[in-house]
Amino acid sequence: MRKAPVSARLLDAIEHIGNRLPHPATLFVIFAVLVVIASAIAAQLGISVTHPKDGSLILPVNLLEREQLRRMFTDAPRNFTGFAPLGTVLVTMLGIGVAEGSGLVSAALRALVTRVPRSLLTATVVFAGIAAHTAADAGIIVLPPLAALVFIAFGRHPLAGVAAAFAGVAGGFSASLLPVPLDVLLAGLTQEAVDASRMLPGYRVQLLGNYWFMAAATPLLAVVGTWITSRIVEPRLGVWSGETHGAPVTTPTADAAERRGLRAAGVAALATFATIAMLAAAPWSPLRIEGATTLDRMKPFFDSIVTLVMLVTLIPGLAFGIAAGRIRSDHDVARMMSDSMGQMATYIVLAFTAAQFVNWFAWSNLGAIIAISGAEQLRSWGLTRAPLLTSFVMFSAVLDVFIASASAKWAILAPVFVPMFTLLGFTPEATQVVYRIGDSVTNVVTPLMPYMPFVLATVQRYSPRAGTGTVIAMMLPYALAFLVFWTALLLLFYGMHWPIGPGVGMRLAG
């Protein structure tokens, strides 16, 4: 019997190992228990470091002591309700729930990819996938099957459409021209890490601290994804034979009600953005205060980003639903918001366990000890600046193959790497942006990506013998190309000292 190729065996091993990992919520329970044990061992060994900012001695706190055990019980609810990402994510999802529940998201994506000339089809599909992040995970359900149908309508291979859409929505996961829920979620975890480390007293992590960089990455990844599709993936797939497996192939079109809804949503979106722009610019705006610089004066505006993102999705969603006849009363709106909250149940469970881990880790002082010791070790190795950034991108990319959840990984990594990079001169937002590159690019090649079974099912409609390895082999060129070009963009921003967000650079001042 012929032995399977090395690549196939490697993919099988990744899938096998990954499938044996516990649920992310269980992982946090395990890590929390390990923190308790490690704190007791570190305290017993008398490990200590000197705080580089104030010169104080940092000692590990034994979480098995009576007072600390009592604190675990009494503060558990407070840890959960005070968990920075929880409220911000849930508020954001209220608006997205209406936009998705009314049908605006799917209708807008269909309108985008079905009304473009043949020459721009691939670029539009990749760009639409990246743009779909504004509506959380809705894009990955709507876009790959739709792209396959549109590619067939243009006489092209449907799997090329699936690949282009999947590359945009998963491989370019963090890139976006607009603020997305992930910005809010990760910034909250970064703030938790900053506060726990005491490295930057009073420092506030900007919710839009990665915005300029991710907006710049959007056209870059759209171009790279288009080139990979046209020059590598589609030629490899060959000419489409026209066979399908399942329902007949038809390209969906908008009906009169949907077109009416899209027009209303467009007007509502323009009005919403105009109002927000006025609130940001007008001296009389309640979202401005007195200050020495423009950024100081706009602080209330930036602090309101979560609410504004909710309104940007809520108001067009309402307009679409009312005009299309899908929202007939306030009960429909409440139901859509409730459905959105219901979909967040898994996240809420994850947030509870993550909140306990994050707080216990902060109480133990292990994060600060590891960060200070690690920063000193990296300096001794000479691993700073560009090599350090590149190494962390690679580390995040490899870890993403085994733990697909962006928030779960960052909740584990942020308490160590945010203060460590701070000691090496990087802003917390810079550490976060480096992590996001690696966390995105390998989404398309990990068997543990939550939507991989859905993408596989879509592929099998046109290629019934396809397996997970088929999808990964098809998507690997995107992952490698996105990794190279996105990292190159990061090094360009770093070398040119360009801001990665409003008022936020990669290096700390001073």
TrEMBL record:
GO molecular function, one term: secondary active p-aminobenzoyl-glutamate transmembrane transporter activity
InterPro entries: AbgT
Residue spans crossing the bilayer: 25-47, 80-99, 119-152, 159-180, 209-228, 264-284, 304-323, 344-363, 383-403, 410-428, 440-459, 471-496
Gene Ontology terms: biological process: p-aminobenzoyl-glutamate transmembrane transport
Keywords assigned: Membrane, Transmembrane, Transmembrane helix
Keyword Nucleotidyltransferase included in the entry's annotation: no
Pfam family, one: ABG_transport
Listed name of the protein: AbgT family transporter
Lineage: Bacteria, Candidatus Eiseniibacteriota
